[in-house]
Amino acid sequence: MPSLTLAERVAVTDQLDYAVLKYLLNNRGKFEYVPKSIIRDNTGLTNGELEVSLLKLLKTGALLKTKVRGEDSYSITFTGLDILATKGLYAKRVLKRLGIVVGEGKESQVVYGYDFDDNLLVVKFHRVGRRSYKRNVRGDTTIKDWVLKTLGNARREYEAMNCVKQNMGNVPKPLGLSINAVALEFVEGVQLNKAELRDPQKALDSVLGTLRVAYVYCGGLVHGDLSPYNVMVDSSENVFVIDWPQATRDDILLINDLKNILGHFKEKYGLDYDMDRVEEYVKGKA
Ligand SMILES: Nc1ncnc2c1ncn2[C@@H]1O[C@H](COP(=O)(O)OP(=O)(O)O)[C@@H](O)[C@H]1O
Ligand SMILES: [Mg+2]
Questions:
Q1: Per-residue b or e along 202-223, where b marks 16 or more CB atoms closer than 10 Å to that residue's CB
Q2: Which of 21, 84, 136, 200 is least enclosed, having the fewest CB within 10 Å?
Q3: Quick one: 6-184 is in which CATH superfamily?
């Protein structure tokens, strides 16, 4: 069912299916694929129930199947994580329903959603590292790393945006975190590279002020992937710095971020800021 939307995949997933997915997520062992008998013994599903669940989850793309030493064995996929995360955000009353896809990046998929008051929001589903996975000599792949990386990115992004927002920086308000999903306030705007700003200096100051908040109030936090693509601007020219999963405490990345953003404003608007002074400002020394 490759054409199903995530919302549709979630809609056909019932409690027993969730139990299977949750087991596969929470009991990630040494190997990626878990034999059917082990899933059955640990979820308490009957053979019949498990058969129905596994078939359905395979059809929705939530699981992959292979034979391990002759037994059908299963592994959770990114779609499986997305389904669990969507349910998690629902249970937290952050997200009532999902809408259409906003965009698909290399390591994430952003989808529109609605909260319980029908306000628009976005959910960013992280997806990192699985493709780069290599099989070992026994033909097994380890699941741990890509799941850990993916969940780590979601958590890092949520925590970074939370700290910056709480300290009055300009980011979309983070609304919730579940598994690999970060729910965010919807920003009605365009990426900075597509904007024609009336007051570029105000926008640049606002970006730099946000970097300063991250650095000074969030323990030296640096965005780490700043570019005109990761800044959104609304029609009142309010800016929002987005895309924080790689946020880290590394001063070298700060210099890179500053070069990228100052370079854009210099090239497009002729604004010439002094790099050293900006660095001091962002680090709270000026
Ligand atoms: N809060 C938001 N409101 C509206 N659109 C958003 C929001 N966050 C992200 N987007 C859209 O999704 C795109 C990708 O988001 P981003 O966080 O940059 O992820 P990535 O670049 O890793 O795919 C953005 O360029 C923007 O178009
Ligand atoms: Mg981006």
A1: ebbebbbbbbbbbbbbbeebbb
A2: 136
A3: Phosphorylase Kinase; domain 1 (3.30.200.20)
